[in-house]
Amino acid sequence: MAYGRIPLATYRLQFSRQFTFDDAAALIPYLRELGVSHCYASPYLRARSGSPHGYDIVDHNSLNPEIGSERSFSRYLDALAKHNMGQILDLVPNHMGVGGDDNAWWLDVLENGPASAFASYFDIDWFPNKEELRGKVLVPVLGGHYGTVIENGEVRLTFDARRGEFSVWYYNHRFPLEPRTYPRVMEMRIEQLAERLGADQRLAQFQTLTTAFGHLPSRWETAQSKLEERRRDKEVHKQQLAELCMKCGAIAAFLDENVQIINGEPGEPGSFDKLHEILEEQVYRLAYWQVASDEINYRRFFDINDLAGLRMEIPEVFDATHRFVLQLVAEGKLDGLRIDHPDGLYDPRGYYARLQTEVQSALPAYHGPVGPAAVPEFYFVAEKILASYERLVDDWPVHGTTGYDYVNVVNGLFVNPDASVEMDRIYTRFLGHHMDFDEVLYQSKRLVIDVQLSSELTVLSNMLDDIAQRNRYTRDYSLNGCRNALIVLVACFPVYRTYIAEDRVSDDDRRYVDWAVAQAKKRSQASDVSIYDFIRDLLLNETSAADPMRRGRAARFAMKFQQYTAPVMAKAMEDTSFYVYHRLASLNEVGGDPRRFGTSVSAFHHANQERARNWPHSMIATSTHDTKRSEDVRARINVLSEMSDEWRARVTRWARLARARKLIVDGVPAPGRNDEYLFYQTLLGTWPLESVDERGFDEYRERIKRYMLKAVKEAKAHTSWINPNAAYEEAVCHFVASMLGNTRQNPFLADFVPFQQRVARFGMWNSLAQTLLKLTSPGVPDIYQGTEIWDLSLVDPDNRRPVDYRKRRDLLRRVVGAAKRLGASELARDLLETPADGRIKMFVTWRALTLRRAMPDVFLRGDYQPLGVTGSKAVHAVAFMRRFEEEAVVVVVPRCIATLLDEEYRVPVGPEVWTDTAVEMPGGIERLYNAFTGEECTVEKTDTGGYLQAATVLNHFPVALLHSP
């Protein structure tokens, strides 16, 4: 196993029942030949049945049987070892899948409440303000109002005679009965059982057992002896009940009859009273799913009710959830971990420190080139979304992020910043009003707080009010005032979260809090804004040291506040604002900021230098399972920033053609202009590169329809997931079908397709350049499954469609074979003739990864040096050098291709395009070799160093990867 090294390049695999360990094992030879060093696996621990992504884990200590068995997992590991490859696992510490009937920890909590051995594992508020919920878990799972669902007979009590257990079922969701309430069922009609059994001694045994269940220690008794007694005796009593039922069919039949009576008869409301009474005595309260936003009392992953937060700050919870993964580490089966959603953790830094310590203890000794018994370096990356003005916390013991920051920096390089004002003008004119992203985001946060995450705010408000009421200087701040202040403050927060702890506050965290407080004061409508200063002091630990109890409460409030701002930002930014604001949709990306219109070449170099200096092994990506659009879709849409005049004319014309294809909903045409604007950009980004048959186009049309439905629901303007507007959604589907129907005689398509083809051609060259930049910039490049060739996917689930690996294997085989048969130069020319078939992107990926493998020190340890570009087309080129000792690699790529090329030049190569443009070179390098064409490039000398003519290095291929001999 190739453990103990930083990856050269990773390849993300999305495991599911459609893509298993055996499928991955069969893929390893292909990935090895492509140049990948590590498979980067989506979660493959046991997840909810049918999970398409694996993030709803129900057991951290076993493999997901839908992905494969221990044997198939071993075959996958053997394939990796055979090809000297390793693997990185996506680990999910923040939450677990709950509901259903497969999470043993959660079921135990529902059965025993605070007395459960796992009660502290989940972040449950057992003492909410609402008295009816104290000591209960609100489970918002019902599809309708509680009373209606009950009387429809959808909630059913059952008895499992083999296990001696009573449970309530709602479809596939199981809710165990609290064992102390078993007598409610067992004692009912007991006289009838007595008549049937007469003097049979098993009647006495049954009655004794009934009494025993009722005398179990209460779920509120917290003495360890009582907890152990309850946990032991309840299982003993269940086993005795099961044995009694097996020996005496009359008792089993009697209990079944009681269960049927309790379950009631639809149409007879009174027949459900007994079931309701039993449910009222349980640890859980079943509720309509829409109640969750107001009253749910367990922390969730965002607003997903069936993903419950874990308290990873508790050592026993950490141990229980990491046992299996640490075993894999100890066995040399893992090279690294990607930690999902650290912003949901109570103390991310503490978690990473503990994980690093445990992993280092578990790592086997490495007997290799570095000597015997050396501890290998283990690779850690954090799924952290950074604002453009935010830095990764420098004391986290990780190698970096998963690359969202790079996605947006490199994407912006292909956006024309000079078009910002004009693109804003076009968007405003199309909508008929101006849209300000700052206001969109602020209002989206308010909406998310009010509609989706209100219950979590209630917990925070109560904590704040409790602190306020304990001090005479702050007791005049009312609960309502606390709540309102928190709403505005959270809506003004500039980052996902801060990382304040009781013993530390960084300068960055202080700056973010101060900024949010200042903005909140400006936006607040309260007459007394001093409450914000009170909250600020609590968040920044600036409370009186003389009151340790108050200080402790303040610290806990600050930690919980941080856990709240992250999901609010995520839901408001990524899942709302990005579907509302469409000035240029390619900028609406995870970790991105639509207000920042493009990245300058100097800013790109600066970001790379910062990464090389501080996080040289951070993961860098261009597409992930979370990105809103694939790299190739974004590269196309970016082209619009270079064609703003034509874009304005086209989109205006299309809107006129679309008028007759809209339905009237609530008196106005639907879809609205904003959704229509997104639709056109989506088509430009995803239109098939090669012609497809009728069936293929039908599939494409359905993909667009599904995406547009998701987009309008996420926008929450005309419809939403919580409050669907069927008429509006029907109008959207009708619009998509009409605009993409009758392909032979469709005025819209007749005008759209020629323009789209030009955009797609420019987008290909942008994307090819972006690919090479990712594979050579400081960091560890990650390739999302399938994107080694053109991939025109949208947000999940579209980007989780099955990948055609047979096609990709064939393309790589053809590329490698042609390189040997024709030679690099001839192959490069051949690829330029048919770029749409994907071979050209495969070729760039293969050659770049091959060079990374041949020169690992350059890419893993080498420095980064921006190279100046001179000449009339200098603005259209990006160049840099990676260097380690005597080895050097030079990268030159074009950018903003649409304004670089005249129409007669379809490819950005040759002296006609690049004229006098040159790349400045430092001294000490005389010649380089082009990895794509095989050509030797001589550095022309100057007094200060030298230069390379762009027309030479980009003479036969649109991107250049040059290396020293």
Give the oligomeric state of the chains in this entry, treating copies of one chain as homo and distinct chains as hetero: single chain
What distance separates the N and C termini?
A: 31 Å
Strand content: 5-15%
The CATH architecture of the largest domain can be given as Orthogonal Bundle
Tally the structural domains.
5
Rg, alpha carbons: 31 Å
What is the CATH superfamily of the largest domain? Maltooligosyl trehalose synthase, domain 4
Backbone structural class: alpha+beta
Q: Would you state the CATH class of the largest domain? A: Mainly Alpha
Write the layout of secondary structure elements.
Elements: E1 10-13, H1 21-34, E2 38-41, E3 45-47, E4 57-63, H2 70-82, E5 86-91, E6 95-97, H3 104-112, E7 137-142, H4 146-151, E8 155-160, E9 165-170, E10 173-176, H5 182-186, H6 190-197, H7 201-214, H8 224-247, H9 249-262, H10 273-280, E11 284-288, H11 292-295, E12 300-301, E13 304-309, H12 315-330, E14 336-339, H13 348-362, E15 366-368, E16 371-374, E17 379-382, H14 404-412, H15 420-431, H16 437-451, H17 454-469, H18 479-491, H19 507-523, H20 530-539, H21 548-574, H22 601-614, E18 619-620, H23 631-638, H24 644-658, E19 663-665, E20 668-670, H25 673-686, H26 694-715, H27 726-739, H28 747-776, E21 780-784, H29 805-822, H30 824-833, H31 839-854, H32 856-860, E22 863-866, E23 869-870, E24 877-884, E25 887-894, H33 897-900, H34 911-914, E26 918-921, E27 927-930, E28 936-938, E29 940-941, E30 946-949, H35 950-953, E31 960-963
Parallel strand pairs: 1-2, 1-21, 2-5, 5-14, 7-11, 14-17, 18-21
Antiparallel strand pairs: 3-4, 6-13, 8-9, 9-10, 12-13, 15-16, 19-20, 22-24, 23-26, 24-25, 25-31, 26-30, 27-28, 27-31, 29-30
Helix pairs in contact: 1-2, 7-8, 8-9, 12-13, 15-24, 16-18, 16-21, 17-18, 17-21, 18-19, 19-20, 23-25, 23-28, 24-28, 25-26, 26-27, 28-31, 29-30, 29-31
